[in-house]
Amino acid sequence: MSDAALSKIIRNGIPGAGMPGFGSSLSDTQIGAVLKELRSLQRSGNNNPLTGDAARGRTLFFGKAGCSECHMVNGKGGFLAADLSGYGGRNSAEAIRQVIVDPNKNFDGRRGAVSVTTRSDRTFRGIIRNEDNFSLQMQTPDGAFHLFDKTALVRVQRENKSLMPADYAARLTGGEIDDLVRFLARNYAGERSAADDDDQD
User: Which one of 64, 94, 108, 181 has the fewest beta carbons within 10 angstroms of its own beta carbon?
Assistant: First the structure.
């Protein structure tokens, strides 16, 4: 990002990602000092430069890759999984790439998929939204919510893996993964594309 774009973020914050703005508490000189420190940290890091194309990544996200079936960006997409509008602001490009190609590495099992089988021999697979000693509420990939009395279930199998496909490294080319990373990494800064603007009209 340019110095001007980074300074704008420091000054105004990123409301969607929970980052406050510091324009009212820091002078222009102090904001410049923060920017200088950020650049210093970037030079000392190991992040690879972003080489993908954000517009192609957006097309993949909402098309071939199927990310939008579960994830949302800028108000568009699914709602079963996390909203990724601010994801790039909290994660490095390398971390985003790692999750795409190997979603089960360092995966938090508490957020894993769950399969339940009822006494009528119906099986549902999805994400638990609420659970207590007597009931379980699940959301399935089609967006539907299901509330089960636990006495009506014969099996609850907690899968220690993500609902996210684990074969993107085989399904997508290296260039396509670069494009997805670029799209997700740039979105948090409010760097909207023409297509995003059209969606809001």
Answer: 108
